């Protein structure tokens, strides 16, 4: 590991230096609570607090050097200080230097967009494993280095954790890494300093407006990822999405498109769409896939296109892709002994809810009832709550509004925010049950053979965060249990 200060700072533009740059540092730290002797403390301005307020505390715990945007009034002896314009960006570059630029030693592909990131990154990971490559994955569900699973705390880890994981992938001989790039990560420069072999854009719809404030700044965050790709990389975009081409406006990367409707470099057509899977025509090849739903035709096509841009054999790619089932908790399908269908899905945006429910409308036979159990996360975008409830009501016969992860909010208040989206004509369809387990139980009791229960919003999650405490909770396990009970 490279840890002499002047090597770590390579590529960072410094406005002012106080003290030695020859010092050896033990680690990089951006949270004073984790400071230890010999670390370089990077003061980052956050959403809750300002890292600059903790510089003294970091030094008290042993920090040997400080990187910041504003020098403290009290400059201490024997401590090195570095003044920069943007410490979050500097942190990304330093973290990459610390681990010897691991992103340049493998082919790193980033996936960004509102929905579909986990699905695409996971399918690419599974595909490249199947094609025989050592591969890494950084995703919402989990991080993975070949067969080793490492739990994930974020969709995109912080820069230090991210570069450490990439470095472990290089150590394990990985040729490729597929990672999700969240809009938070771009806005907070978590991916600064990384060298990408390619970037993929899925779609852009309503989410995270609590954090980005406007749709425009959300769009800019996503676009920022493509703006930073270099001319050796590819930039693959969904041409059917309204903002697909906007993403590529200022990129230096090779521009490539995929789509089902518009003219594109990579094209596909849906031939058949069933609960058992999709039959697609991809560039004149008809192939059955296990993945369900028209939105997955986009995901599969993006994966196929990326694999070809990474110079893989077309037929081998299609053969392998046809066997894959994607990420856990995405359109996870089960059927009870009495014939009730249960689907667990991670849809937690209005667009995802509509996609999942409209897919079900497309493929169901006609007379069955669709019963949707849905909640919205606390401490997240409040404006999506009434819209998600409205979409759920518009596309279901019965809707049970319930809790997702209330986090620090009052669960009943979140449900009231959702209820505001239930239109008068839909009132008789909706009922509210705060306890999510009770809500799933009720859906199972209401369902008759042939009916379809959709439990949306938590997908693979194995917990429910109530009041900041994560209690064990698993939609799939609970649904399986009740479906068998009522059968
Ligand atoms: C809103 C958000 O993204 N917050 C992330 C952010 O925290 P922050 O900017 O709010 O940090 P802060 O608490 O204001 O503190 C500012 C700085 O002071 C430091 N500090 C703070 C307190 C202290 O005593 N000492 C100290 O040094 C902090 O370490 C930080 O460097 O930076 C932290 C360190 O990287 C993250 O852990 C934290 O993620 C929180 C836990 C989170 O829930 N993030 C979610 C919203 C998120 O990032 N989600 C996206 C996916 C969304 C999607 O599905 O698309 C993700 O990539 O996971
Ligand atoms: N291409 C797509 N277009 C629209 N909706 C999709 C698409 N792919 C998946 N979805 C829906 O969005 C949900 C989330 O999918 P996925 O986990 O792949 O997205 P994500 O972008 O990783 O989400 P997150 O931001 O939470 O990490 C799925 O459960 C499904 O309902
Ligand atoms: N990564 C997303 C996931 C949301 C999933 C949903 N279950 C919720 O808790 O809101 C976020 O942090 O916004
Ligand atoms: Mg994800």
Write up what this structure looks like.
It is a single chain. The chain is α/β, with parallel strands linked by helices. The chain has 3 domains: 5-98, MurE/MurF, N-terminal domain (Udp-n-acetylmuramoylalanyl-d-glutamate--2,6- Diaminopimelate Ligase, Chain: A, domain 1, 3-Layer(aba) Sandwich), CATH 3.40.1390.10; 101-322, 3-Layer(aba) Sandwich (UDP-N-acetylmuramoyl-L-alanine:D-glutamate ligase), CATH 3.40.1190.10; 332-486, Mur ligase, C-terminal domain (Protein-Tyrosine Phosphatase, Chain A), CATH 3.90.190. It has 16 helices and 24 strands. The chain has helices at 5-8, 55-60, 87-98, 117-130, 159-171, 183-187, 209-212, 215-227, 244-248, 294-309, 314-321, 350-363, 384-394, 411-419, 436-446, 475-486; strands at 14-18, 28-29, 40-42, 65-68, 80-84, 107-112, 135-138, 142-145, 148-151, 176-180, 198-201, 234-238, 254-259, 266-274, 277-282, 285-289, 332-335, 341-345, 370-374, 398-401, 430-432, 452-456, 463-466, 469-472. It has an 11-stranded mixed sheet with strand order 9-8-7-10-6-11-12-13-14-15-16, with helices on both faces. Strands 17-18-22-19-20-21 form a 6-stranded mixed sheet, with helices on both faces. Strands 1-5-4-3-2 form a 5-stranded mixed sheet. Helix 10 runs antiparallel to helix 11 (314-321). The protein is globular, with a radius of gyration of 24 Å. The chain starts with a helix and ends with a helix. The mean pLDDT is 95. The structure holds ligand UAG, adenosine-5'-triphosphate, 2,6-diaminopimelic acid and magnesium ion. Residues 117-118, 139-140, 155, 180 line the site of magnesium ion. ATP binds at residues 113-119. Catalyzes the addition of meso-diaminopimelic acid to the nucleotide precursor UDP-N-acetylmuramoyl-L-alanyl-D-glutamate (UMAG) in the biosynthesis of bacterial cell-wall peptidoglycan. Keywords: ATP-binding, Cell cycle, Cell division, Cell shape, Cell wall biogenesis/degradation, Cytoplasm, Ligase, Magnesium, Nucleotide-binding, Peptidoglycan synthesis.
């Amino acid at each position: 590991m490279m840890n002499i200060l002047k090597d770590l700072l390579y590529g960072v533009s410094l406005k002012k230096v106080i003290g030695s740059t020859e010092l050896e540092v033990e680690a990089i730290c951006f949270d004073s609570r984790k400071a230890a002797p010999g670390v370089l403390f990077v003061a980052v301005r956050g959403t809750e607090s300002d890292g600059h307020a903790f510089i003294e505390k970091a030094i008290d715990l042993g920090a040997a050097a400080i990187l910041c945007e504003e020098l403290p009034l009290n400059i201490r002896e024997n401590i090195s200080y570095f003044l920069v314009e943007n410490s979050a960006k500097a942190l990304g570059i330093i973290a990459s230097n610390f681990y010897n630029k691991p992103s340049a030693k493998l082919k790193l592909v980033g996936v960004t967009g509102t929905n579909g990131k986990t699905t695409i990154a996971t399918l690419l990971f599974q595909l490249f494993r199947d094609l025989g490559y050592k591969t890494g994955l950084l995703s919402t569900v989990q991080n993975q280095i070949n067969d080793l699973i490492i739990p994930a705390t974020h969709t995109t880890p912080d820069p230090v954790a991210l570069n450490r994981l990439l470095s472990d992938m290089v150590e394990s001989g990985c040729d490729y890494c597929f990672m999700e790039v969240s809009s938070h990560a771009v806005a907070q420069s978590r991916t600064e300093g990384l060298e990408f072999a390619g970037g993929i854009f899925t779609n852009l719809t309503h989410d995270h407006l609590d954090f980005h404030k406007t749709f425009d700044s959300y769009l800019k965050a996503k676009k920022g990822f493509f703006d930073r790709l270099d001319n050796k990389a590819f930039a693959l975009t969904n041409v059917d999405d309204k903002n697909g081409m906007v993403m590529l406006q200022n990129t230096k990367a090779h521009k490539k498109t995929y789509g089902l409707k518009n003219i594109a470099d990579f094209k596909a057509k849906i031939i058949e769409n069933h609960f058992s899977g999709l039959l697609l025509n991809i560039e004149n090849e008809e192939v059955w896939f296990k993945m369900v739903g028209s939105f997955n035709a986009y995901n599969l096509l993006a994966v196929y296109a990326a694999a070809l841009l990474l110079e893989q054999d077309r037929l081998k790619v299609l053969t392998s892709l046809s066997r894959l089932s994607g990420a856990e908790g995405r359109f996870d399908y089960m059927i009870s002994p009495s014939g009730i269908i249960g689907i667990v899905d991670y849809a937690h945006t209005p667009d995802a809810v509509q996609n999942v429910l409209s897919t079900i409308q497309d493929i169901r036979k006609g007379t069955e009832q669709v019963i949707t159990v849905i909640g919205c996360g606390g401490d997240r975008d409040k404006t999506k709550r009434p819209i998600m409830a409205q979409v759920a009501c518009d596309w279901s016969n019965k809707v049970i509004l319930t809790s997702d992860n209330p986090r620090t909010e009052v669960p009943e208040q979140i449900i009231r925010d959702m209820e505001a989206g239930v239109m008068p004509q839909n009132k008789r369809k909706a009922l509210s049950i705060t306890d999510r387990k009770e809500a799933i139980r009720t859906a199972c009791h209401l369902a008759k053979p042939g009916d379809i229960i959709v439990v949306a919003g938590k997908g693979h999650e194995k917990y429910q965060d109530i009041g900041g405490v994560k209690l064990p909770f698993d939609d799939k396990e609970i649904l399986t249990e009740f479906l068998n009970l009522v059968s």
